[in-house]
Structure formats: structure tokens, C-alpha cells
Amino acid sequence: MYRNLKDLLRLTWPLLAAMMAGRLFGIVDVAMVGSLGTEGIAGLSLGLTYYNLFYYIVVFAFLQSNLIHFAKYSSPEKGASLRNYISHEIILGILLSLLGLLLLGPTLWGLRFLTDSPQVLYHSRRYLLIRTIGVLPMFLMAMYSKLLIAVERNQLLPVFTVISLAFNVFFNWIFIYGNLGFRSLGVLGAGLASVLSMIIHSAILIWYFKYVTRNFQAGTKPFTFSPAILKERFELSFTIMQSRLFEQGSWTVFVSIISGISPLALSIHEICMRVKDFILMLSGPVRDVTMSQVSKKIEKKQEGAAKQSCITGAVFLTVVMGTLGMVMIFFPEPFLRLFTDTAEVIEMGKGLFLIMGLYQIADALFISFQGGLLGMADVKFVRDINILSGWLFMVPLVLLFIHVFGWGVYGAWAAFALTIVIRAVIFAVRFLQRSWIPEAPPAAEA
């Protein structure tokens, strides 16, 4: 347990630090575009919203699933297979970039229905255009970060992220405001700065990955294209994409129901979501490391070690999130006052913080064992449970608690908390029962 915990902390803290540094990108863009006025910020926000929609639903599904495969080929003796697999991932990144460009035309046209301001529409279209062109460097940046997690050489990720952030600030200063002889591009300049900084970030990661894997088996065969590898990747990623789409759909319904209660209910819901996002920022790296470690150890036929890695992650995350939950239960007001001074909102927020605090342990188990199941490539089971629990349990329960029992926003969040509890129990039982491991056909040879 101690060794697993040590490995978990060693691999998790760089991801957390890099993620926190990465959050500054959006803050910097908004701050530097802010001098252009409200229409500039609105255009940036609208364009970024639709870029993130494509990234988090489509691209992220492929990036999450590639960590499962990278971990399988992460040992030095499988270096040739890993490099061949990377080549297929690059082809996949190119295909996703082309998909983004294919969807760009209809998206740019559809933005006209989301704003009445010609200036906001102008800024959002230009920003979305340049960011979509930059999907490939973004994909490569995320892909090589996952590779470094798989080979357990991710300690410098925060440093590389800070370097990229510095370039982003510099390029923003040049292209937004028109310095060093360049013309001012406004919101378009912010998008261009992001793309250029990602290109530099990708180049650094590629160089560093080649450096840390220089002793990996080189292999003698040239790159061999395998349709079976791409087919396997698409099937796995499409399953994750389905899960994300349906989860996002049930969550959209959840928020829509809350918005129908009152503006006050929606405002306190948003405050709770910001706190929840912070907690997810802490738990996400643990899930990714767990996924990688389980996949790697299963590939080595070390099923007992894989099980122990997941349990260690679950125990660690339970302690961390359980502690945060206790703080939210007993000291909610300081958190709430970070967002508002309105007495009515603070009073209502105390009740929601109680609910949030109580389900943190269940959320920790849900996230950890979901990572373990994904590491075992049991993605269809994860998809089915998340979809069914969201649409057949959470949404009806929200409606029951609000419209029949009259519990308002408390009822909505209570239904959500119960959904997390159910998912946590099912995923934990599924992972801990060894009989669930499928007799899957061997992965396509890289």
C-alpha cells in the first residue's frame, strides 16, 4: 500500500500542478481581451464555448482512451510497438482536425442565431476559426502529456505548462494589441496566441518524450499502417464519446430544471458548481494515474497489483475529498462569501454545501473505480451505467423531489448525490469482483 501510495503521489502532483497552471490560460485571455470592451469578451466567450464543446465531447474522448493503450506499450522492450502506435495516434489527430474543419462551416453559420450583436458575432467567428485550425497542435500537446504519464516521466509537465503560458502572454501582447510592428488583431489575436503557444508546447513535449524514451527498443521495421488499430481506437473512443454526450444531456436537463425554480436557486447552484469544479480538478489526476497504472499492470499480467493500485487511489481520494466534505459541512460560510455577500444566497448555500459535503466520499469512490474500470477497457459498462443512472434515475428523481415533495434546489442536488452513491457502489463492486474481467481478444498489434 505504501509503495502504491508513493507512486500515486509522485505521478499525480505534476498533473495537478499542470492543470492549475493550465487554468490560467483562460484567465489571461479574458483579462487581456477585456481592454477591447464587453463585445470582445462576449465574442471570446461565445467562440470558446463552441470550441470547448467540440474538444470536451469529441477530442477528449479520444485522448482519454489513448491513455489506456499507451500504458500497455510503456515498457522499454515494447518501444517499437509504442512508436508505431504513436504514428497511428498522429493520423487520428489529423483526422480529428479535418472533422473540426468540416464542422466549422455549419458552426460559424449557426452562431448568428446566438447573438444579436454584429460585433460579438464577428469576434466569435474569427476566434473559433483560428482555434479550430489549431486542433492538431492541441491534440499533440495533450497526447504527449498522456504519453509521459504512461512512461511515468511526467514530473516536468508543470514547468512546460508555465513556459507555454509565458509564450501565450507574450503572443497575446503582440497580436491582441499590435506590438513589435504587428497589426492589432483583437480577439483573433488571442486565438492566434493560443495556437502558437500550443505549437511550442507540443514541440517541447515531443522533444522531451524522445529524450526520456531514448533507451526504449527502437525496432527495425518501418512504420506499418494498420486499419485494425484505428478501428479499435475509434470503437473505444466512440463508446466514451457516447457516455459524455448522454451525461452532458442529462446534466443539461438537470440545470434546466433548476433554472425553472428561481433565479436564486440557479445562482446558488452555479456557486456550488464552481466548488465542485475545483474538487474535480483535484480528483482528475488521480483518475488518470489510476487508469494508467491499472492498464499497465494488467498488460503485465499483474492483476493483484492492478487491483491494489486502484484501491490505493480510492483510499487516498476518499481521505482528501472526505476532508474537504467535512470542511464544507462545518465551515460553509467562508467558501460562500468568496462568491457573494447576499445573505439569502449564503443561507441557502449552507444547505447545499451540507449535501455536497455528505456525498464527497461516494464521489471519491465513483471517480477512482471508474478510472480502474477504464484502465481495464471496460468502457461499455461505464457508459451504460452512467447513461442509465443519469436518465432513468437522476432526472426522474429530480422531478419527483422538486415537483412532488417540493424540496426545490435541495431536492435536485439530493437526487444528484444519490446518483453518485449508486454509481460508486456499482463501479466498486464491478471492479472488485474478479469474475467481471472479460476474455477480450488481443489488442491490435502496433
Structure description:
It contains 15 helices and no strands. The chain is globular and about 65 Å long. It is mainly α. Helix 2 packs parallel to helix 4, helix 9 packs parallel to helix 12 and helix 14 packs antiparallel against helix 15. About 1% of the residues have low confidence. The relative contact order is 0.11. 81% of the residues lie in helices and 0% in strands. It folds into two domains: 216 residues, no CATH class; 198 residues, no CATH class. It is found in: Cell membrane. Pfam families: MatE. GO terms for molecular function: antiporter activity; xenobiotic transmembrane transporter activity. Keywords: Antiport, Cell membrane, Ion transport, Membrane, Transmembrane, Transmembrane helix, Transport. Its main location: membrane.
Summarize the structure.
The protein is mainly alpha-helical.
Q: Keywords for this structure?
A:
membrane; MATE_MdtK; 446 residues; Multidrug-efflux transporter; ion transport; globular; cell membrane; mainly alpha
DSSP, total strands: 0
Provide mean pLDDT, rounded: 88
SSE order: HHHHHHHHHHHHHHH
Instruction: Output the radius of gyration.
Output: 23 Å
Overall shape: globular
Sheet of most strands: none
In DSSP terms (H or I, runs of 4 or more residues), the helix count works out at: 15
Would you identify the regions where 5 or more consecutive residues have pLDDT less than 50? 439-443
Helix content range: over 70%
Portion in beta strands: under 5%
Integer tally of domains: 2
Structural class: mainly alpha
N-to-C span? 33 Å
Transmembrane segments: 12-33, 90-109, 129-149, 156-176, 188-209, 310-331, 351-373, 385-406, 412-432
Protein name: Multidrug-efflux transporter
Organism: Salinispira pacifica
GO molecular function: antiporter activity; xenobiotic transmembrane transporter activity
